Amino acid sequence: MRRFSFLLLHFFWRKIALPVMRLLPLRRQMQFRTLAHHVKMTFVHGQIIDFYSQVFVNTTQSCIPPEMVLFPAVTPVEPSFILNKSVPLPLIPVWIVDELRSLSEIEPDLCPTPEFLASFVSYTPPLELGPGEVYRECSSIISDFNADIIFLIPWLVVGGADQGVLHHVTAALAAGKNVLVISTIDRESSWRKRLPQEAKFIELGELGRGLSESQRLSVLTRIVLQSSAKIIHIINSPLGWDMLKQYGRSLNAVNKHVFASVFCDDYDYHGCLRSYAQMYFVDCWKYLDGIMCDTQWYPQDLKRQYGVSLDKIKTIYFPVSIESTFVYRAVSEQKILWVGRFAQQKRVDLLIKIARLLPHINFDVYGYAVHPYEREMEDEMRKLGNINLHGAFESLESVVATNSYSLLLYTSGWDGLPLTLLDATMAGLPIVASAVGGVPEFINEETGYPVWNHDSPLAYVERINQAMMDDVAKRLKWDSAVELLLARHTTAHFTLQLNKICGYFDDK
Tell me: the pLDDT tens digits for 367-409? Predict the structure, then answer.
């Protein structure tokens, strides 16, 4: 009988109802189809909706206005349900629950049911203990130390810029300043023992070895901002420059005066320009109180490249420590000294070509390799019979004092005014040097043998032969270099120039 009834309804729907419905407007057709669908689901498939079992939660006398309540409401949900041990303790305070009740009269979805409140979770930010531990260790080093000036450097190793750092620290101490030096790169500072004992030294790069770059930056910034130092001097520290770039406004706001030393542009192994001026001047110029260079050439070059004002840039020639009278030590032997890193800047490739063109001359080479390219150059030098490798050196003066040389050869491809030239003059050697950057400000035709065509090995050979053939002229050139050294590169002259920089030692 049920099957017969189903077939009869099916026949009625297909043969009578549908043809009649198609005569109606589309909207009416849809309404009848909906009604027919529910009739089918109820009478044929037995689907039932128990409307009387639906319960509306009453909050603040009801989440729904009283006139809209069609069925009896349950007892209002009170905040006391939070104390029910069978329900997880919500994170929402009672006063917020009450606010939600009030708002639910406008937006029912905000009704504070137990299920809704249980959907909230607690967020705990991750704890980074590393930076805090490094900061604590740094703080213990400078506890009760009221710094007046902070030097931010990459490291303290054998090098001209590192000598410059020592000169700046010594001058600051002589001016009665409390000095804090912070190295920011993870590398052993072999010259740490040269730092005056009165200065405090933090090896942040080494202490923060396990930190990310951003974490080291946060530690450094906190140390600097919280220090009593009014002067911050950045010398070749990338992290120091990053701090100035990101937090320069904060540093200026707490009356920190920021200075930086820049010496010359650099180039990578692809020949692309890389310098602190290129990377940071655009973002940091407005935060800097002053720029220090060791030549007159580089400020003009910075103005040419970046259009910066020379008002902020000062030339401060580095000094040499004159502890004894100068002694001329050059000899007539066919032996030449070369010192420096085996970096691309120092043009070891030129040294190799020069040595091949002068097989009768011996070359003592003091230096070291770090990168693969530099090790390749080291291997090439070992193949030549007239190049003797001696590794790194501690003091150029001690090298010259224990050996006999005719002159110093300097083959750098770009440079400021390298302290190696000053040290070699003090040690008693005349110099053949590439006329690049600020080098001609010290080695010119009166004080040495500048090589103007500094990419040509033959040009170096010509100047070397010229020096070897005339011992008298070689001595006269060295005498002129000594006079220039005494006139311009003394500690007194260096300190005098620093005192002229407004806001550096005078704290104005």
Answer: 888 788 788 888 999 999 999 999 888 788 889 988 999 999 9
Q: Helices 276-284 and 238-253 sit at what angle, rounded to 10 degrees? A: 20
Residue type, 161: A
Residues 110 and 135 in one domain: no
Domain count for the chain: 3
Residue 47, burial from CB neighbour count under 10 angstroms (0-12, 13-18, 19+): exposed
DSSP secondary structure code for residue 74 in this structure: P
- Which spans in 358-470 are helix H? 372-382, 396-401, 419-427, 457-469
Expressed as residue numbers, the domain containing 111 is 52-118
Burial class for 428, CB neighbours closer than 10 Å (0-12, 13-18, 19+): middle
Is 75 part of any domain?
yes
The residue-averaged pLDDT of 298-306 equals 93
Alpha-carbon span 162 to 175, nearest angstrom: 20
* Burial grade of 504 (CB within 10 A; 0-12, 13-18, 19 or more): buried
Residue 392 located in a structural domain: yes
Q: Is residue 22 part of a domain?
A: no
CATH code, domain carrying 168:
3.40.50.2000
Same domain, 287 and 365: no
Beta carbons of 161 and 236 less than 8 angstroms apart: yes
**Secondary structure (DSSP) of 254-299:** TT-EEEEE----EE-TTS-EE-HHHHHHHHHGGG-SEEEESSSHHH
Residues 173 and 177: their CA atoms lie apart, in Å, by: 5
Average pLDDT taken over every residue of the chain? 86
Q: Which two tokens stand for residue 480?
A: 């002129």
Is 5 domain-assigned? no
**Does residue 477 contact residue 449 with C-beta atoms inside 8 Å?**
yes
